Amino acid sequence: MNFDEDYKEMNGVVIEKLGHKAVADEAVEATCAATGLTEGSHCEVCGLVLKAQKIVPKTEAHTPVDIEETAATCVKDGKTAGSKCSVCDKVLIESEVVPATGKHIYENGICREQRLS
Hints:
By secondary structure, the chain is mainly β. Helix content is about 5%, strand content about 35%.
């Protein structure tokens, strides 16, 4: 043990230096919308960075989710299925408009879809 490195004298009292108390800084995953960070750590007592976090660039990959198709009715347009990124909402596969059919399906004289007579 080295006295100068491991101990300090204050008012005639010799005090042992404490080591750093490491706390993990969690990694943050990069996405298509934001940069990420690698795992790191710092001292809980003095705040000294023990392992610096590094910036991880944004990814080029999106996280696709389906956009469900909507069936056209006799008076309302529908849409084909598509997809978009669940992170940044960028449309990956555009939905297309399906025109209203204009054909009513009557049951007992009432349109089943729109309740029109």
